[in-house]
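tl;dr need the bound structure. longer version: we got a ligand (magnesium ion) that a collaborator sent over and nobodys looked at where it sits. i said id run it. heres the input, straight from their email, havent touched it
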Amino acid sequence: MIKLKNSEQLELMKKAGRITGEALYLAGEAVKEGVSTLMLDKIVRTHIESQGASPSFLGYAGFPGSACISVNDQVIHGIPSEKKILHEGDIVKIDVGAFYKGFHGDSARTYAVGKVSEEAKKLIEVTKESFYKGAEKAVIGNRIGDIGFAIETYVSKYGFSVVRSYVGHGVGHELHEDPEVPNYGVPGRGARLCAGMTFAIEPMVNVGTYAVKVLSDRWTVITADGKLSAHYENTVAITENGPLLLTEV
Ligand code: MG
Ligand code: MG
């Protein structure tokens, strides 16, 4: 069931979204060669807790980190580690959630570590732009399928593929609510969008095949062919005035 948010709840979602976006921004600013993914995780946790919120992912189904931090062919759900050091040429995805006064925010970005390949640069750019192609369709009266169709159409123009086994999702009192928001779809299909819906649009885009697998740590999702993957996510509210990006700071 899709839970619509009233204006009071939306105000709290805006705050949770702002804290999420700030934590992500601060971690992104710290991305450089030699930094461990655990260090980035600490930045995320420190900021979230300083705002009177708590990291949504910490302890979620037993997840040990405050952020999911995934490098290169890791798609999502990478576990922060002191041993995972960033190197020049890597791309790193940081995924953050903050829980504030009963509501979550959820957002992710992909960062380049120093100078990266042209292919990596293009992937990061196309993934970000595909988010906006999808978000443009997040207006009252459209359907969920319109969002995914716009994302996949854009991504495939560049020869990249969208991950199909993981999708966007409603965000609110729960981190994952209805509806599912796939990064592919059929225009005019799926739930009709109406004011008060809040969900994460989050294209995960691979250079090669869309197929993924899960590592033996039972969390880290990697591309099946070992090629690069990028991620871009915001929590979006559907309003009378168009889509509102709650986690963009
Ligand atoms: Mg996320
Ligand atoms: Mg999400």
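gonna send this back to them w/ a short note. The chain has a mean pLDDT of 98.
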